[in-house]
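Retry 2 of 3 after timeout on previous attempt. Resubmitting C-alpha cells to design endpoint.
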C-alpha cells in the first residue's frame, strides 16, 4: 500500500494540496510595493523593544502586528505611483516585568533589512507616553549574520539568565482568483 493512499486517485489531491501550500507560502513572503507585513512587524518588535529598554522600560514581552494600507489589492491591480508612499499600520502590545501594559503603535513608511523602521511611532507604558520616534533602530548598521547572541550578564540586575519570549508574527494573506 502506498503512503499516499490506496491508489493513484488519492495521490493527485495530496500532491495538489502540497503544491498549493507551497505556492501560498511563496506569495505570503513577497513584499507588497516594498513593505512586507511580517518584516515590518518583526523589525518594529525588535527595534521597539530595544528603544523602550534604552528609555528604562523593563520589557518582559512585546508582540507586534502590521497591516499594509491597500494590501488587499489583487496582483492585477495597477501599481501605485512612485510618488505615493506606502504605509503600514503597526500595533504592538506587551507587558513590563512589573506588570504594566505596553503599547507601541503608529505608521511605518520604510523598513530596512531588519535594521530599522521609519515612520511615526508612539510607545506608552501604563498609559504614559515614554517614546515618540520617527526612526527605530540603526538604518546604517551592517546587516546581521543571522547568528543568535546569547544573553550577557548574570545574576541580579545583569539581564542575563532570564528567559525572553519568542517573537510571534501573524500575517493574513487573502488570495483572489484570477479569471475572466
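Retry 2 succeeded. Sequence:
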Amino acid at each position: 500500500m502506498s503512503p499516499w493512499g490506496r491508489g493513484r486517485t488519492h495521490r493527485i489531491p495530496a500532491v495538489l494540496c502540497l503544491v498549493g501550500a507551497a505556492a501560498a507560502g511563496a506569495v505570503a513572503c513577497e513584499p507588497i510595493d516594498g513593505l512586507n507585513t511580517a518584516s515590518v512587524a518583526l523589525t518594529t518588535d525588535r527595534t521597539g523593544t530595544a528603544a523602550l529598554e534604552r528609555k528604562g522600560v523593563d520589557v518582559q514581552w512585546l508582540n507586534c502586528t502590521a497591516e499594509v494600507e491597500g494590501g488587499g489589492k489583487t496582483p492585477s491591480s495597477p501599481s501605485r505611483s512612485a510618488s505615493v508612499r506606502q504605509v503600514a499600520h503597526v500595533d504592538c502590545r506587551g507587558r513590563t516585568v512589573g506588570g504594566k501594559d505596553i503599547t507601541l503603535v503608529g505608521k511605518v513608511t520604510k523598513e530596512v533589512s531588519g535594521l530599522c523602521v521609519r515612520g511615526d511611532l508612539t510607545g506608552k507604558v501604563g498609559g504614559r507616553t515614554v517614546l515618540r520616534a520617527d526612526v527605530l533602530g540603526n538604518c546604517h548598521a551592517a546587516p546581521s549574520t543571522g547568528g543568535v547572541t546569547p544573553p550577557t550578564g548574570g545574576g541580579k540586575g545583569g539581564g542575563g539568565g532570564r528567559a525572553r519570549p519568542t517573537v510571534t508574527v501573524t500575517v493574513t494573506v487573502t488570495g483572489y482568483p484570477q479569471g475572466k
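Attempt log closed. The chain has two helices and five strands.
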